[in-house]
Amino acid sequence: MTSATWREGTPPPLPGPQGVAGWLRVIRRGVPAVLILLLGVLLILPLRGVERLFHGRRRPWTGPHVQIVCRLVLLCLGIGWRREGRPLRGSGAVVANHSSWLDILVLNAAMPVFFVSKAEVAGWPGINILTRVTDTHFVTRDPRLARAQAAEFAERIRAGHRLLFFPEGTSTDGRRVLPFKPTLFQGFLDANLPQGLAIQPVSACYVAPAGQDPRFYGWWAEMDLGPHLLTVLAAKRQGHVAVTLHPPIPVSGNDRKSLSAACYSAIAADFAALESLD
Question: How far apart are alpha carbons 18 and 188 in whole angstroms?
Fold first, then answer.
C-alpha cells in the first residue's frame, strides 16, 4: 500500500466502515464517485484528441471538464467546499499546501490546474489513473535531467497550463503548513518563461466532521491510502474544505527565497486563523 511521508505526531486511528451501515455509506458514496470518474475519463480522451487538433498543447476544454468532474465527485462524497478569490489571469503557476489525497479533487474543483508531482506517483494504484488523465507534470530528482525538465516546464507555462506545486514536498495532518522549499521556486526564474509571470498561492483548509479528530482528512506518516479512503467514505457525516485563491505574486523583482516566503506567508495566515477557531 502507498503511504505518506511526513511522520510528526501520532495519526488518529483509521477504523474504516463499522457494521452494515458503514459499508452502505461506502457504497452510496463510492460507487457514484467511481462511475463519474470513469465517465470523465471516457469523455476526456476523445475531447483531448479534438482539442489537440484546434489548440495544440493548450487545454481550454479539458481543464474545465476535469473541474466539473471533480466537483461532482466531491458532491457524491458529501464533502462540502467553497472557494474564495479569483483564479490567476495571464501566464503563471499555482502553489498550495498539501494535506491529503483529497487535494487532487479539491484543487481541481477550485480551478483548472495541472499538478506537478514526483515521478514515483505515476506508479501509485488508482491515483496513477487520475494523474495521467489530468496531464500531471512528473519530475525526477536527477540532476542529469534538470535541463530537459526545465525546458518542458517552460513549454507548458507558455502553452497556458496552470502548473500546481506543493512546496512543502509532502502531505501533512491538515492543521499546519510546513516550511516551503525555496529550491522548488527556481524554475519560475528561467529566462525562457513568459514575461509578466506570476505565482498564485492557494490554501485548502479542511474542517473535520463534527465529533471527529480535527486531523480527520489529513493523510500523513504511515497512514495507508486504502484504510484512509474507506474511513472517509464511511463517515456518518462529512466536513468541508475552504479553498482560498490569494492575490498572485509577480515573479519579476523576486528571487526564489522571496517568492517562497511570500507564498508561505499568504497560505500560513489562513491556518493561523483556522487554529484560532479550535
Answer: 47
Give the C-alpha distances (Å, rounded to integers) separating 234 from 19, 57, 231.
Answer: 10, 40, 5
β 92-96/137-139 pair status: unpaired
Q: Model's pTM, two decimal places?
A: 0.89
Q: CA 47, CA 41: separation in Å to the nearest integer? A: 10
Task: Please state, in angstroms and as integers, the Cα–Cα distance from residue 179 to each residue in 36, 42, 47, 100, following that order.
Answer: 36, 39, 39, 17
Q: Does residue 101 contact residue 228 with C-beta atoms inside 8 Å?
A: yes
Nearest to 238 by CA among 95, 88, 102, 80: 80
Strands (E), 101-197: 114-118, 137-139, 163-165
| Pairing between β-strand 92-96 and β-strand 114-118 as defined by DSSP bridges | unpaired
- Amino acid present at 278: D
Helical H segments across 56-194, by residue range: 62-77, 103-110, 127-133, 146-158
Tens of pLDDT along the chain (278 residues)?
344 467 788 899 999 999 999 999 999 999 999 999 999 989 988 998 899 899 888 888 998 999 999 999 999 999 999 999 999 987 789 999 999 999 999 999 999 998 887 766 666 666 666 666 677 777 766 666 566 767 777 888 888 888 899 999 889 999 999 999 998 888 888 877 888 899 999 999 999 999 999 999 999 988 888 999 999 999 999 999 999 999 999 999 999 999 999 999 999 999 987 765 56
> How long is the chain?
278
Task: Decide: helix, strand or coil at residue 27.
Answer: helix
Tell me the three state secondary structure of residue 131: helix
